[in-house]
From TrEMBL, chain A:
Annotated NCBIfam families: PRK00143.1, trmU
Signal sequence residues: none
tRNA-specific 2-thiouridylase MnmA-like C-terminal domain: residues covered: 282-361
Positions of the record's site feature: Interaction with tRNA: 126, 340
Function noted in UniProt: Catalyzes the 2-thiolation of uridine at the wobble position (U34) of tRNA, leading to the formation of s(2)U34.
Subcellular location: Cytoplasm
Binding-site residues for ATP, renumbered to this chain: 6-13, 32, 125
Reactions mediated catalytically: S-sulfanyl-L-cysteinyl-[protein] + uridine(34) in tRNA + AH2 + ATP = 2-thiouridine(34) in tRNA + L-cysteinyl-[protein] + A + AMP + diphosphate + H(+)
Name this protein carries in UniProt: tRNA-specific 2-thiouridylase MnmA
UniProt-listed InterPro entries: MnmA-like, MnmA-like_C, MnmA-like_central, MnmA-like_central_sf, Rossmann-like_a/b/a_fold
One Pfam family from the record: tRNA_Me_trans_C
UniProt KW NAD keyword: no
Organism of this sequence: Actinoalloteichus caeruleus DSM 43889
UniProtKB/TrEMBL annotation, chain B:
Cofactor names: pyridoxal 5'-phosphate
Catalysed reaction equations from the record: (sulfur carrier)-H + L-cysteine = (sulfur carrier)-SH + L-alanine
Domain Aminotransferase class V positions: 3-377
Protein name per Swiss-Prot or TrEMBL: Cysteine desulfurase
Keywords: Iron, Iron-sulfur, Metal-binding, Pyridoxal phosphate, Transferase
Pfam families: Aminotran_5
Phylogenetic classification of the source organism: Bacteria, Bacillati, Actinomycetota, Actinomycetes, Pseudonocardiales
Record has Cell wall biogenesis/degradation as a keyword: no
Length: 365, 411
């Protein structure tokens, strides 16, 4: 196959590219430039597109003996990921920009370009397992072998036609073994630290990032039970459902218990807060469902649901309703924020949990 | 392999390689007073004379530097500082909008940090700066002009500027003119004295010499404040121990390149015409940029003889470059990269291209080792490559088509 390896400059994508080469594919490495003004050097937390990352990716490609190019996706990234990130927070939702980047950049803009240029697949360093379904209608997307690094969640919103052209060569290996493999191959990125933060917010201060773009949109902070206005805030974009810290309340609640963000109302600018048990949710409605296997849910399906990238799972029963999926949780779950993606898995300890489908949370009760 | 990126760097000439190799085994600091030092100095001075002779300059006008970027910075910043020191009113810099970044960014730096007042001289649709444009800019406030700088030949689209006319226009007001002739030397006739320019940049690796060595030709009337201070070498304008092997190789390369300029220009112009015909035949809507059909040979050429710069509508330059690279054809998108982020070329924007179109451009540049086989390779590859890149470009334009998860209801 002709494979386009997306190389971030990190160890995972370097080993993924190396494995694609070792598998006998015809591999070309590409580093995506996602910022029009890349930082000169890494500072603190690792961003995605510093000059150093670009150089690290290039050096890995040199060692693998594959061609390497830097492609400019900064404009697409700004429009489809950063602007969307800000707009979602403005609308009182909690977006996942990594998921969005996979949907719109890596497996849309990049994949479409790669296919048009004659490549058969895009290879990345994501930790997930993938294989075509027996009927060829879709793919089986499963959790990675390494439970600590599993990224099937941030890939679950991809359509079958996107996933069909994806290669995740490191999904069957634990991270320490990937680092060891990189060491054995003298890849200089072997000991490079993992990236954690949102790549376009290198200092990790999401609220300051949003404040600078949204500005001050003050509104009331309201006690959901009594209706009492407890204070003012600088905009709904500063909050996520389930949040406890940073509410700016200078006095404790009447009953002395901590208060949490219950809901966000972007039009009025109201942030409703209340006791933790009021966060409990037993039903989730998720829109725009996608089915990686190519087979929508049929009837009531027992499954487990995950609602954030590094969160746990909750047992549930899910049912398709047209474009939506309705999820009834067996036990209540707290802190389910609209905008997050609910991913449904069928547990499978041997082959890895299978992704059944995903949808963006629009309502909870 | 078809190497069609001679404007980026061109193979070293065998004569330059052998001269440099021999010199690398020779001991001596050209500033030392003993016999080894004198030998080294003699090599430097003979090189200086050879370069001066080839370019119509006096040996005392040859200042060795570390390359084109340094020569450009030295000329722009050094002349600006010296002229302003002589008369504080002189804060204006007149620079063409299509300069190489080594000039562009040096000028911008002076504007940002030294209070320079910049007038960017517009170019005509072929990328040329006309003397009348310079005259008009000067007329706004002639006494305040520190210097003018206009490149001899453009590195992206190959347009040659009327340097003698520009120098005359500047000289009428006592304004020094610097010209970046990095692409011009060896490609078109260059005579420093006859041109009337006061400072001229050239570099080794564009003429078949080594990279990392260059020259600023600087006439004796033009003061230039040094950027590098130290041992006082090179008329006290550029301190630093001279790189004798590189300088000796540079002299060989300049002498050879200038010596065969007429013959090479005719040969490359014919090859380049074949290349243009091949591209136009395969891709009828390809746009040839610059002074594409102007004269490339003779005493007053309008463009570099071996350069063809195309825009391919609907394509992205990086796709074209990758596909050609995979077929062993090496050329350039002509865009500047730092972390690798391609910016739309300021040269194409200056000649009136829109940023989207500017991204779909390729520069083919021929040089002393180019052959008809190189052109044949392009003739064979370019049609399918453009077709494929165009389908990738269309994929990019389809962008909003795909359905993705998006919340519709608010809570």
């Amino acid at each position: 196959m002709r494979v386009l390896a997306a190389m971030s400059g990190g160890v995972d994508s370097a080993v993924a590219a190396a494995r694609a080469v070792a598998a006998g594919h015809d591999v070309v490495g590409v580093h995506l430039a996602l910022s029009a003004k890349p930082g000169t050097l890494r500072t603190g937390a690792r961003g995605c597109c510093t000059i150093e990352d670009s150089r690290d990716a290039r050096r890995a490609a040199d060692l693998l003996g594959i061609p390497f190019y830097v492609w400019d996706f900064a404009e697409r990234f700004r429009e489809d990921v950063i602007d969307d990130f800000v707009a979602e927070y403005e609308a009182g939702r909690t977006p996942n920009p990594c998921m969005r980047c996979n949907e719109r950049i890596k497996f849309e803009a990049l994949l479409e370009k790669a296919l048009a240029l004659g490549f058969d697949a895009v290879c990345t360093g994501h930790y997930a397992r993938i294989a075509p379904t027996a009927d060829g209608a879709g793919v089986e997307l499963r959790r990675a072998v390494d439970p600590d690094k599993d990224q099937s969640y941030v890939l679950a919103s991809l359509r079958p036609d996107q996933l069909r052209h994806a290669l995740f060569p490191v999904g069957d290996t634990r991270k320490p073994d990937i680092r060891a493999e990189a060491e054995r191959q003298d890849l200089a990125v072997a000991r490079k630290p993992d990236s954690h933060d949102i790549c376009f917010i290198p200092d990790g201060d999401t609220r300051a990032f949003l404040d600078a773009r949204v500005g001050n949109r003050s509104g009331d902070l309201v006690d959901d039970e009594t209706g009492e206005v407890l204070g003012q805030h600088g905009g709904v974009h500063g909050f996520t459902v389930g949040q406890r810290k940073g509410l700016g309340l200078d006095r404790p609640s009447a009953d002395g218990r901590p208060r949490y963000v219950l809901s966000l109302e972007p039009v009025s600018g109201t942030v409703r807060v209340g006791a933790s048990e009021r966060l409990a949710v037993t039903e989730i409605v998720a829109d725009d469902a996608v089915w990686p296997t190519g087979r929508p849910l049929d009837g009531l399906v027992e499954c487990v649901v995950q609602i954030r990238a590094h969160g746990g799972v909750a047992p549930a029963v899910a049912e398709r309703d047209g474009d939506r999926v309705r999820i009834r949780l067996r036990d209540s779950v707290r802190g389910v924020a609209p905008g997050q993606v609910a991913v449904l898995y069928r547990p499978d300890a041997d082959a890895g949990d299978l992704v059944l489908g995903a949808g963006r949370i629009s309502a909870t009760s | 392999m078809a190497y069609l990126d001679h404007a980026a760097t061109t193979p070293m000439r065998p004569g330059a390689v052998s001269t440099m190799s021999a010199a690398l085994l020779t001991l001596g600091n050209a500033s030392s007073l003993h016999a080894s030092g004198r030998r080294a100095r003699r090599t430097v001075e003979e090189s200086r004379e050879a370069i001066a002779d080839a370019l119509g300059a006096r040996p005392s006008e040859v200042i060795f530097t570390g390359g084109g970027t340094e020569s450009d910075n030295l000329a722009v910043k050094g002349i600006f500082h010296a002229r302003r020191a002589a008369d504080p009113r002189r804060r204006r810099i007149l620079a063409s909008a299509v300069e190489h970044h080594a000039v562009l960014d040096a000028v911008q730096w002076l504007a940002d940090h030294e209070g320079a007042d910049v007038t960017w001289l517009p170019v005509d649709p072929t990328g040329r700066v006309h003397a009348e444009v310079l005259a008009e800019a000067i007329a706004e406030d002639p006494d305040a002009v520190a210097l003018a700088t206009v490149m001899w030949a453009n590195n992206e689209i190959g347009t040659v500027n009327p340097v003698p006319d520009l120098a005359r226009t500047a000289a009428a007001h006592g304004i020094p003119l610097h010209t970046d002739a990095v692409q011009a030397v060896g490609a078109v006739p260059v005579d420093f004295t006859a041109s009337g320019a006061n400072a001229l940049t050239l570099t080794g690796h564009k003429v078949g010499g080594p990279a990392g060595v260059g020259v600023l030709l600087l006439d004796r009337q033009t003061s230039c404040t040094p950027l590098l201070h130290g041992g006082g070498q090179e008329r006290d304008v550029r301190s630093g121990t001279l790189d004798v092997p590189a300088i000796s190789a540079l002299a060989v390369a300049v002498r050879e390149a200038v010596g065969e300029q007429r013959e090479q220009a005719a040969r490359l112009a014919a090859l380049r015409d074949d290349l243009v015909a091949a591209v136009r035949a395969a891709v009828p809507d390809a746009v040839l940029n610059g002074d594409g059909d102007g004269p490339a040979t003779g005493p007053h050429p309008g463009r570099l003889p071996g350069l063809a710069h195309f825009t391919f509508p609907g394509c992205e330059g990086d796709s074209l470059l990758m596909l050609l690279d995979a077929k062993g054809i090496e050329c350039s998108t002509g865009s500047a990269c730092t972390a690798g982020v391609a910016q739309a070329s300021h040269v194409l924007l200056a000649v009136g291209a829109d940023p989207a179109t500017a991204r779909g451009s390729l520069r083919f540049s021929l040089g002393h080792t180019s052959t008809a086989e190189d052109i044949a390779a392009v003739r064979e590859a370019i049609g399918p490559v453009v077709a494929r890149a165009r389908s990738a470009g269309l994929a990019g334009a389809r962008r909003r088509g795909g359905r993705t998860l998006r919340t519709s209801a608010e809570v």
